[in-house]
Amino acid sequence: MGCSVRAPITGITAVWMFFFFFACSAPDRDEPSYGGRVRIGATGGMEPINPLMASRTVSAEVLDLLFERLFAETPDGQLAPALAVAWPFSPRLKFWDILLRSDAQFHDGRPVTAEDVVFTLQLMRKQQNGENLLFERVEALSEDIVRLHYTEPPLSSSLVHLRLHILPKHLVKPQLAAGYSLDELPFNQHPIGSGPFRFADLVGEDHLRLVAFEGYHGGRPYIDTVEVRSDYPDTRYEWAAFMRGESDVALFAAPDDLKSIADNPAFKVLKGGGPSYTALSLNCRLESVLADRRVREALHYAIDRQAIWRLLSGEATADSVFMAGPFPPGSIYNDPQVALPVKDQRRARAILQAAGWADANGDGLRERDGKALELTLGMVKELPHRHDIAAQLRKDLEEVGIHLLMQTEPLQTLSSMGSQLDMVLGKRYSDFDPDITASEWHSRNARNGSGYINAEVDQLIEAGRTAYDENAHIAIYRNIHRHLLEDHPTIFICREPIMYAVRQPLRGLESIMRMGIFRSLPAWYWGRAR
């Protein structure tokens, strides 16, 4: 049986690899050893820990420690074994069989079976109303074989949708049957998965403790205990705690913070990049000035992306860090005919003037019908080092006659305030799966916080989910790319740099930039003190 399927996203590889150049480091010399704990500080608090519940907090990150995925992935979008070990592909069949490993078990000792996978997929399908899960139905052929049925022979990339964490049917199903909603499940307070660490306790609402799972199919992690404290008000407090020795990993570090410890042997600085990007989500609803596409287009040309990248990363700029749409340069879904955005304030002024916004009294601020052109920008309160970006945006917009007001809110509050703000500065994710990436602009998607509505884009997204021809699949997403650039519901800015600091002598960090903090943590260990 074949053990991997190459998702049709390999054109992105060169772009991914460009970002990994930051993280080049000499191999660790210490031999791996067992024991010790790793402490991680975070902001935003802790939400219920359940793979079926979307979360913007660190709760979503710890899922990879507690729950095993059906499939893992490589940096260039290939599927890799996890609970699934083989998935032979035939372009002629309308079904796809997935063979599960026989040695995986949940933290309570029960084996992971095909019934758990079927249960999780059915729950996920119900949660998403069928979106992003392309199969028609799913069944368990045996304890270790899952069969997915399709209306047409699937693409070789169809399984990319199934990189999800598997739940224990024997625990979750009875609680749902008893009338609990997903967010009220007792399971969420004591989650049991099949990942490398198991739940130990939650102190208060924000101090999570996990311990190594001896029965993990991939082998026991080296670290005994992982503690995640998520009650820091913002990243400044998180960094201060790291410097006081209260944590071993700084998840969010500002460029100046990293420079201050660059030559200190007690710390290791890791820089790189990945699939996230920085963007401005614009309010396209009728009550906002930005309902006028021309004003959104003016913003597209007004902002200085190079300055923003330097503020984010502390590094020099390169064309490959900038975004012209949701699919990065190098992706086969990125339309090569779409030019990268450049600052052109003369063009921005001309667009605003043609839209009726003029500086009639010479005070530098544009007005129309007696109303000043004023926009409110929302920012994440827990990320104060990003406020320099807001100051840069204010400068850029004032140069074309737009006054920018700034409002900071906690992340959880900000995510629900789309209709009350004109735009929100934040981080978005460009998934290897184009269906997941593009669906954020579907008018009926709950993640479409901008209120963007385009019937043709809706139709294209829906067609992309069921396109069973590779060339048609690519053409659909390139068309979506062009629509988003023409409509400007989002101002795409640049790649999101990843910058970590870890305490020494933590070892086993080679995969941290490729997999992230939490996915790479099972390989970590404490070396000899230097």
Describe the structure.
The protein has 17 helices and 20 strands. The chain has 530 residues and is an alpha+beta fold. It has 3 domains: 10-67 and 195-266 and 504-530, Periplasmic binding protein-like II (D-Maltodextrin-Binding Protein, domain 2), CATH 3.40.190.10; 69-181, Alpha-Beta Complex (Dipeptide-binding Protein, domain 1); 275-496, Dipeptide-binding Protein, Domain 3 (Dipeptide-binding Protein, domain 3, Roll), CATH 3.10.105. The strands form 5 sheets. The protein has a 10-stranded mixed sheet with strand order 8-9-10-1-11-18-12-17-15-16, sandwiched between helices. The longest helix is centred in the C-terminal third of the chain and has 18 residues, at 470-487. The chain is globular, with a radius of gyration of 24 Å.
Helices and strands, with pairings:
Elements lengths: L12 H7 L17 E7 L14 H4 L1 H4 L4 E3 L5 E3 L2 E3 L8 E6 L13 H14 L9 E6 L2 E5 L19 H9 L19 E7 L3 E6 L12 E8 L2 H10 L4 E2 L4 H7 L5 E16 L10 H10 L2 H9 L31 H10 L12 E2 L2 E2 L1 E7 L6 H12 L4 E7 L1 H4 L8 E7 L4 H5 L16 H11 L4 H18 L2 E14 L2 E2 L4 H4 L1 H4 L4 E2 L4
Parallel strand pairs: 1-10, 1-11, 15-16, 15-17
Antiparallel strand pairs: 2-3, 4-5, 5-7, 6-7, 8-9, 9-10, 11-18, 12-17, 12-18, 13-14, 19-20
Helix pairs in contact: 8-10, 9-11, 14-15
